[in-house]
Amino acid sequence: MKLTFATLLLLLSAVSWGQTVTSQEISGLIQDISGSAVPNVTVTVKNGETGFIRTAQANESGYYVVSNLPIGTYELSVEVKGFKKFVNTGLVLNVNSKLQANVRLEVGNVTESVTVAADAVQVETATGEVGRLVTGEQATNLQLNGRNFPQLLQLLPGVSTTFSSGFGLFGGYGVNNSAQSINGSRTDTFSWNLDGADNKDNGGGGNNFVNINPDAIAEFKVLTTNYSAEYGNSAGAVVNIAIRGGTKEFHGGAYEYLRNDAIQARAYNATIKPELRYNNFGVNLGGPAFIPKIFNTSKDKFFFFGGLDFKRLRQGAINTWTVPSPAQINGDFSALGAAKWPKDPLTGAVFPNGIIPQNRFSANSYRLLQNYPAPNFTGSGGNFVFPTVAPLSTNQYILKGDYNVNSKNQISVHWLRDYYESLQNLTNLALYERHIPGTNAAAHWTFVANASTVNSVQFSFTGNVIKEKVGIRANTLFVNDFSRKGEGVNYPLIYNAADFIPSISISGFNGLSVTPLNFDNFNRVFQWKDDFSKLIGNHNLKAGMMAMRSRKNQDNVPAINGSFAFSTSASNTTTNALADALLGNFYTYTEAGSFRQGWYRFTQVEPYVQDDWKVNSRLTVNLGLRWEYMQPQYSALNNTSAFLPQYYNPAKAPQIVRSTGAIVQGTGDPYNGLVLGGNGFPDAAKGRVPVASDPAVLALFHNLPKGTAQTYNATWAPRIGFALDLSGHQNTVVRGGFGAFYERIEGNFIFSSVNNAPFIQQSTVYNGNVENPSGGALQVFPAAVNNSHYLDMKVPRTLNWSLGVQQKLTKDTMLDVAYVGSSAANLSYQQDINQLPLGTALANPGVNVNALRPYPGYADIYEYMTGANFIYNSLQVQFKKQLAGGGMFNAAYTWSKSRTDANGYNYQPMDSYNLRGDWGPSSYNRNHVLALSYVYPLPFWKLGREWYKVAFGGWQVSGVTTLQTGLPFNVTIPTDTAGTGLTNQRPNVIGAWQGPTRTQFLAPAAFATPAAGTFGNLGAYAIYYPFFNNWDVSVQKTFRATDRINLAFRAEFFNVPNHLSYTGISSTYTSSTFGQITGATDPRTMEFALRLTF
């Protein structure tokens, strides 16, 4: 083994290699009937659908490997003088599969042949990794709610989903791909690859740059544990998706899926059904590209696949608001009763009869209040009910080409464009459109140097653009014009950065928000990968490297149009917030003066070596090592700041007014403890960073790393696995392994750092009047630092291990049972380093918390740290059976336990000084999950023109049933009983918490407010939602137009029994609705489809 790894390291020092999209392989031993090796034999594999042929040479031990093969069904043949020709047909090579096909040669004439057919299911005898396959047939035959393919992951062992409806995966920024966890890992730790090209948005919470429709998926494999050192850039699962390709025969289809509210059941607690219109339609075509008598005349050289997919959704919602009455907007509060009449702030006396004279109104404020609609509803929850309809459309375009240049060279390219468009802010006074064109494109070249040496190179370009400064217009439900001039609003602005009316919030009523400008994003990722493989003896060696460069420009738009808050906390209050608004007496007015933009960058390089060692005919050992260089993201403008305690000087702390917490003007250094990364602003910052020439800001540079984060290099990731064929007949295999994996910290930790001082230009005025906001008290209060991070953040690391048995029960049935475990360290979370020690606020009555902080001059200081952990243990069982006629049955069961002290990258513990106090169940893990899926073509009357065969033949039933325990959730209290200045605290539990009825899930009497100066005894996420079950069924009738053309009508039923599983619970203790069910899964939903295939 020393020689093996020395050889690998020597190769790596001379040439660069990396992972490849065509990482599938067929290997095996060639022996005669006595079991003796037959050496130096040529092995030929052929894909009958494309005509692709590859040969390999067996070594002295009779061991052969045909590597870097495209997915497909192959025929393997061996011809040796003195032996009968051997042919093995039906070898199905799936994504990332390492198929073992041993050869037994019989003595005879080469003109004779022995043909064997591969079984429908195969145990994995060449690798110890845990990977789960989802076929293209499953993707198209199983009903998918919204046809969002990530739902298919719930059919696999080890997966715990956090969504209640697949249709709900339509997110604000594309399809949500972070709604599931695998093996206890966080939901944003997946790696998504399209034909080998990275598709993950590293700053998008796990979303992908592009979605792909199920009809364009050939298959995909989810590598969950102990996978090869070929794969990195993820501490969770790796999802490798293979795009459909062309074959020697043309194939394709067209489809239309539709649903509307007329055939849907009513949602939980809904009085009416909101509007729903959904259409998903598309076409696809694949085949050979040829020019008769000129190019590809044999139709085995060049193939193409193209697809179009379109979605059109209009999804309604019923909104309930609390709004002022017309009388109140005109100053008449008499209906409230004398005890609640507003008081004149000038005299302290109640306005006569509760009516405010109109000559006291603020003209600007009164004009803004006219935008409130009049009440139209009497009942609980509000007095104004209105519908909104959210339009959303997606356009998807896919092109793929495969070119078999010759026996030594193959080229593959793909281009996928996904365009997402939606209308946003439907309950806002200003609407805007969100446009997100995403791209995933790659070119891949495989070169076969000789029968034992293969090299593959891939370059990919991925990314998206998010544009939100388009389609800005007034929401005519409220206003016809939101400009200051159009609305007749003319109060003086502080910065004059926008000509839009301000947002207003009034205690006791829904606010009127105006967000006319939102952020734009331009994200591009360039990735290069190269992979070299060489068979030396019984060692299948690989060495490779991946290099990635990410460029993301993203801006941030603060409230440049201003925002008024009316509250009885104002010093000039009438004791009624709405009356304050009429007079124009606000509590706070906030206005910002500029946009902020970050140019975010990072480089990532990951070399690896891998040795798949065929120890003997029954044992394979997988050894690998990967090193992952992950440069922390930074802004190329050097305009992100962080608070580092070592740079805070107590002598420069400001004086704090103990009663109010305000900073005494003229005292202290406003940037005390803040630092900037790099050694100065680049030229590009001029004109983009307003404070780039400010000497006080320039003094914050201390030659720290860009992004104020050190690069952590101790990221060695060893991998080891084994597969032992107990009988030698590929029926029973024991498999296991161990591996280390690393995950890039999500980019949001740096993206919001542009909102910290000194880059935020924003003023907050207290206790003023709308007619002249800047005339109020311009008080400076300690600001919160919500997005800081430590200098020495480590890269999160996950360890995985597994041991299991695969048993082939029959040629089409397999059982897989495994113990799978994992643990993680260095996970990110947010610690408030300026939290008060326990009981501090209670020991200082009448003193504002900001006067008691460890770092005076600041409010909360949330630092991203990397010290959280999780541990996961599970039993995972999968039963698979292939049925005649293309049917299948799959059962996946997981029994698991997952514990963590931080459930997400920005998790904030109850006590920042005791992270381990939040150790408890992972919020994204279900302890028991059983997922059943099936496709059953009825076996009779498939052919024939008789009327009864036409009517009753060609039917297919498919379905997905999910039975699982509920997710854990947190119970909180709304007050700071611990005296720490924070309110994310938990109560005491003093009895059995189960409620008396299904809808009163929690018993309020079982909880109590902790004693002053203490934390509650209820653990984090210690209570679980109720049991969850869902039954989806599809019925399909196929009409055969010709031998090749089929037309299928499908009726799909989601939640067919219309059984509701509860998904929302009022969990704030002391709330009037505490413990009550507030939400449930979608009601029964019907969808019809028509599919033409040929």
From TrEMBL:
Source taxon at top rank: Bacteria
An example Gene Ontology molecular-function term: siderophore uptake transmembrane transporter activity
Membrane topology: Multi-pass membrane protein
Signal peptide as annotated in the record: 1-18
GO cellular component, one term: cell outer membrane
TonB-dependent receptor plug domain location: 143-237
Compartments, record wording: Cell outer membrane
GO biological process: siderophore transmembrane transport
Residues in TonB-dependent transporter Oar-like beta-barrel domain copies: 243-1086
InterPro entries reported in the protein's UniProt record: Beta-barrel_TonB_sf, CarboxyPept-like_regulatory, Oar-like_b-barrel, Plug_dom, Plug_dom_sf, TonB-dep_rcpt-like
Keywords recorded for this protein, A-Z: Cell outer membrane, Membrane, Receptor, Signal, Transmembrane, Transmembrane beta strand, Transport
Xref: PANTHER family: OAR PROTEIN, TONB-DEPENDENT OUTER MEMBRANE RECEPTOR
Protein name: TonB-dependent receptor, plug
Source species: Solibacter usitatus (strain Ellin6076)
